[in-house]
Amino acid sequence: MQLFEGKRILITGGTGSLGKVLTRRLLSGEMGDPAKVIIFSRDEAKQHFMRLEYQNKAAATDEIIYRNFQRKLEFRIGDVRDFHSVAAALRDADVVVNAAAMKQVPTCEYYPYQAVMTNVLGAENIVRAIREFSLPVETVVGVSTDKACKPINAMGMTKAIQERVFIQANMLSPETRFVCVRYGNVLASRGSVIPLFHEQIRRGGPVTITTPDMTRFLLSLDDAVDTIFAAVKTGYPGETYVPRAPSALVTDIALALIGQRNIDIQFVGIRPGEKTHEIMVCDEEAYRTSERGKWYAIHPMLPEICPNWRGSGVLTKEYSSSDTVMSLAETTALLRERSLMLEDVAHETAEVLR
User: Fold this and answer.
1) CA neighbours within 13 Å on the CB side: how many for 144?
2) Domain 8-184+219-244+280-320 part of CATH 3.40.50.720
3) What is the pLDDT of residues 75-130, one digit of tens each?
4) Does 147 qualify as catalytic in the annotation?
5) How far is CA 203 from the centre of its chain?
6) Which pLDDT tens digit goes with each residue over 236-252?
7) 32 near 59, Cβ under 8 Å?
8) What are the domain boundaries of the chain?
9) C-alpha span between 61 and 124 (Å, rounded)
10) Of 239, 303, 315, nearest to 279 (Cα)?
11) Is the bond into 312 cis (omega within 30 degrees of 0)?
12) Does the predicted TM-score (pTM) go above 0.85?
């Protein structure tokens, strides 16, 4: 599949966990050979070390920044909050993946307006630049979260507005296709529960869990990238792609990682703004949902964008992580298959250090 052959792809927030895996997959050529992959973010240190990684440099030396703009993998300092830096980067893009976000739930609760600035204004800056400068961007993918579905926290509320900003943009700039992807917590991504559990186990415990009945979908970063690829390949304007994924009790995830070790589990209560279960499609969206292979596609509610859709959809109720929870044995097998057991991670770290 030559989906990205010759394309210039801009990834906002490209130095994050998703951006790094997306970059690796794009440069692998599995979807065609892109002309350029542009990493757009505000953290010069993360860009520097990502550049080192791709140039196989053993030491952090300054000279590698030269010829930056002549390389297939290009790094640009900028901020989605800053309209002018966004507009400048978009001039050189055919496809945009907006992965820039404030995504930590408690942080967004304590600094809600900062979440608005990144998650809402950042999306609006992308839409505004394309519209005001008539930029020939073919596709924009807005990366969203399960927390945007029936939002109860500032992070989810701002991501829900981001989805609406991108969906409605199809009316403002019909030459550009705006789609979204929505998924839950990603296994082993920065700030997720598995690295936390690993560290707690290394220290001898206890492993801290919010509540005994909490469930989560189990998605890898590659699953998240597959969802982006599917949305670019087959998504219609205004649609939101959601992966169909297994789910597990967080308690079972902890028990699987602990294994035979003598480590206690401590329940500490739900953090500010946290949900007990992840919901990826709510009741009100169920009738607007279709199956697309391994994904659900939620059709936009605006009739101008989706004029031919007439319910009812493939779902009859919300799609939640509490629907089909795996057993402890199934959870353990999946984590082992994904090489996420503590011994697997320790082995990988040792190999890198050799």
Assistant:
1) 37
2) yes
3) 999 999 999 999 999 998 999 999 999 998 889 999 999 999 999 999 999 999 99
4) yes
5) 29
6) 999 999 999 999 999 99
7) no
8) 8-184+219-244+280-320
9) 37
10) 315
11) yes
12) yes
Distance from C-alpha of 321 to C-alpha of 248, rounded to nearest angstrom: 7
**Tens digit of pLDDT for each residue in 19-40?**
999 999 999 999 999 999 999 9
Structure-block tokens of residue 155: 């992070």
Tokens matching residue 180: 């979204």
Give me 22's structure tokens.
Answer: 């997306």
Please state, in angstroms and as integers, the Cα–Cα distance from residue 169 to each residue in 4, 104, 165, 349, following that order. Answer: 23, 26, 6, 44
pLDDT confidence of 271, banded at 50, 70, 90?
A: confident
Alpha-helical runs (H) found in 133-249: 154-172, 193-202, 221-234
pLDDT at 192: 74
Query: What is residue 227's three-state secondary structure?
Result: helix
Write out the two tokens for 270.
């739900």
- For residues 81, 83, 84, 87, the Cα torsion angle rounded to the nearest 10 degrees is 110
CA dist 237 and 115 (Å) reads 26
Among 20, 46, 103, 147, the one annotated catalytic: 147
Closest C-alpha among 171, 169, 172, 144 to residue 158? 144
Find out whether 170 and 237 touch, Cβ atoms under 8 Å: yes
Reduced to 3 states (helix: H, G, I; strand: E, B; else coil), residue 320 is strand
- The SS3 call for residue 335 is helix
Which residues, at least 6 apart from 51, have a Cβ–Cβ distance to it below 8 Å? 64, 65, 68, 73, 75
Whole-number Å distance between alpha carbons of 308 and 317: 22
| Cross-strand bridge partners of residue 275 | none
Query: Could you tell me the CA-to-CA distances from 62 to 58, 65, 77, 128 in Å, in that order?
Result: 12, 6, 16, 35
Average per-residue pLDDT in the chain?
90
Predicted pLDDT at 349: 38
Mean pLDDT of 213-237: 95
pLDDT at 353: 32
Give Rg (Cα) of the chain: 20
